[in-house]
Design a protein that fits this description.
The structure holds 2 protein chains of 2 kinds. Chain A is mainly α. Chain A contains 4 helices and no strands. Chain A is globular, with a radius of gyration of 12 Å. By secondary structure, chain B is an alpha+beta fold. Chain B is 27% helix and 36% strand. A 5-stranded antiparallel sheet of chain B has the order 1-3-4-5-2, covered by helices on one side. In chain B, a hairpin with a 5-residue loop joins strand 4 and strand 5. Classes of the chains: A mainly alpha, B alpha+beta. Chains A and B meet through helix 2 and helix 3 of A and loops of B.
């Protein structure tokens, strides 16, 4: 349930950054599955997620994230619930 | 953190910008045309007004090691040749993980009217490994 709430909360961020209103965000989603997920949009995504969730990622956390599932786990670890 | 800078759009500077980018639209080079359009005089190119931010971003904040990832500007009032604008760039958000900053940018004229406002994301690329 918590995963769903977080993914639901961050989905508009992904859709805005990658300019794809039909993008379906799941735990398995990664950069290879989104054509516009390039290095510049990755930076924009991190900035937007930090602002949206009110958190700060560390360099190690960022390096450890291979997909949305990893991101959700990091956000949960920071106490973010998607609310 | 913020920085400020003033810039005067002289006749010579505007002529050089027009030459550089090839924009000789009458509102920039024909005073009678500009006045007929309701402006007090010939207008500075909007992108020249915005270009001054490049010097601030690249030299002061965030500085020489940064690159511009994105930039958006909205023009709010015309700028005529001879005007001096006050530019301000301030930090809105910093992401140490992404090695990037979001900056807010604004420029105002001598009457205190904001003539353009925008936002830029700049990042700090890691040096290439050899």
């Amino acid at each position: 349930m918590l995963d769903e709430a977080i993914i639901s909360s961050i989905t508009p961020v992904f859709r805005r950054i990658f300019e794809d209103e039909s993008l379906v965000v799941t735990r398995s989603l990664d950069a290879s599955m989104v054509p516009s997920w390039d290095s510049l949009n990755h930076i924009a995504l991190i900035l937007e997620l930090e602002s949206h969730a009110g958190v700060k990622f560390t360099t190690d956390e960022l390096a450890s994230m291979a997909n949305v599932g990893d991101l959700v786990d990091v956000l949960k670890g920071k106490g973010y619930s998607g609310a | 953190m913020s920085v400020e800078l003033t810039f005067t759009f002289t006749e010579e500077a505007v002529a050089r910008f027009a030459e550089l980018v090839g924009d000789f639209a009458p509102v920039h080079v024909d005073a009678e045309f500009a006045q007929a359009q309701g402006f007090p005089g010939r207008l500075v190119h909007g992108l020249f007004v915005g270009a001054i931010f490049s010097g601030i971003l690249g030299q002061q904040l965030p500085g020489p090691r940064s690159v511009i990832n994105s930039l958006s500007l909205k023009m709010h009032a015309p700028v005529t040749i001879g005007e001096t604008l006050s530019y301000q760039v301030s930090v809105k958000q910093v992401s140490e993980a992404a090695h990037a900053v979001i900056l807010e940018m604004a420029a105002s004229n001598g009457s205190g009217v904001t003539v353009c406002r925008g936002q830029s994301t700049c990042s700090f690329p890691a040096p290439a490994r050899t």
